Amino acid sequence: MQNFCTLFDSFYMTRGIAMYQSLEECCDDFHLYIFAFDDKSLEILQKLNLKKATIIPLKDFETKELLAVKNGRTKAEYCWTCTSSTILYVLENFNVPNCTYVDADLYFYQNPKVLFEEMGNKSILLTEHRYPPKFNRTGTSGIYCVQFITFLNNEEGLKALKWWTAACIEWCFDRYEDGKFGDQKYLDDWLTRFKGVHVLQHLGGGLASWNVEQWPLLSKKGNIITFQNKVNNSTFEAIFYHFHHTRFFKNDIVDLGWRHPTMPVVKNLYAPYIIKLSEVDQLVKSVDASFHIPLQDFALIKSRGLKDKIKYLIKRFGRFNVFNTKKLIAEYRKS
Predict the structure, then answer these.
(1) How far is CA 209 from its chain centroid?
(2) pLDDT band per the 50, 70, 90 thresholds, residue 107
(3) 331 or 2: which carries more pLDDT confidence?
(4) DSSP type of residue 269
């Protein structure tokens, strides 16, 4: 049994359900523990009655230590604060031998058992950001990404997990400060701080907007998506992709973020993902007709500050990672 946990609120509802459905399609034996981070997500998830999921409301999960820091952190910072605590909650309350935290905006194409097989008899599995050299942000964002992180329910796993949980409660903010950043920089020294740590080598586990440009997409046959590793001229298949910073705006605009996925990646990964999110949106509306995700006017983002103004102006004059969703989907369906 592969045990996973995730957390999201109603804003990330469609992504979280899409991630669950992707696991359902490629995993024979798994269970996902979902921490519902607002009342609307809890209500909808309970109505959906997902067969391979357990829904956990905040009132059952939040400890006095978490509640004590909640008001002093943004919504994103509080989610980061809680990540380690969700894993610990599952291990301590459901008597499972292992648990893997997964971000709600991951999407699985193949069974991740190959990643756990690589882990072998180790107690902790970490995934690197794998930034390209020209965009190396390990110094401020961390070597490892919390997107997919596994702990065994044993002495080695619990020692590291409890240390991490306490550290995140003490400090977890969206800024670089004194060698810390969010919940991620804490992982940087784990190969020496803790025993039983394995760093994932499979390049198909951890594909994301910030690193995918390094690896040409060679082919897509159903869910078998093959990339080339130009370093040694080998190939590898996508296990999961992290659709980080994919943002939707009014007037059918989607922003794929700061980095530049190639057009084959846009057409073969992003377009089907956008279609999937639309399908999930209709599923959610079938149990709650009032459900909607607030959308911002993309044109107004230019008024939000210098960084966003620069980003808007660059994209306004030809950056290719902003698309019209209807056109993107139409082109995908023609191909």
Answers:
(1) 11
(2) very high
(3) 2
(4) I
Alpha helix ranges (H) inside 71-152 = 75-93, 113-119, 138-141
| Residue 229 three-state SS | strand
Rounded Cα distance between 60 and 201, Å, is: 36
pLDDT of residue 308 exceeding 80, the answer is: no
CA distance 180 to 200: 22
User: In this structure, are 168 and 316 located in the same domain?
Assistant: no
Residue 301 DSSP code: G
pLDDT in tens, 278-293: 999 999 999 999 999 9
Mean pLDDT, residues 306-328: 64
Q: Do 137 and 195 belong together in one domain?
A: yes
**Is residue 280 within 8 Å of residue 18, measured between CB atoms?**
yes
pLDDT tens per residue across span 208-219: 999 999 999 999
Task: Give Cα 242 to chain centroid, integer Å.
Answer: 5
Q: Do residues 91 and 172 share a domain?
A: yes
Q: Which of 109, 134, 141, 331 is nearest to 227 (CA)?
A: 109
Q: Answer yes or no: are the C-beta atoms of 169 and 97 closer than 8 Å.
A: no
User: Residue 316 belongs to what domain range?
Assistant: 245-334
Q: For the chain, where are the alpha helices, taking DSSP H only?
A: 13-26, 39-48, 58-61, 64-70, 75-93, 113-119, 138-141, 155-170, 190-193, 263-265, 271-287, 306-316, 325-334
Task: Report yes or no: 34 and 16 within 8 Å, Cβ to Cβ.
Answer: yes
Question: CA–CA separation, 247 vs 226, rounded Å?
Answer: 26
The two three-digit tokens of residue 187, written as one number: 């992982």
Is the Cα dihedral 177, 179, 181, 183 positive or negative? negative
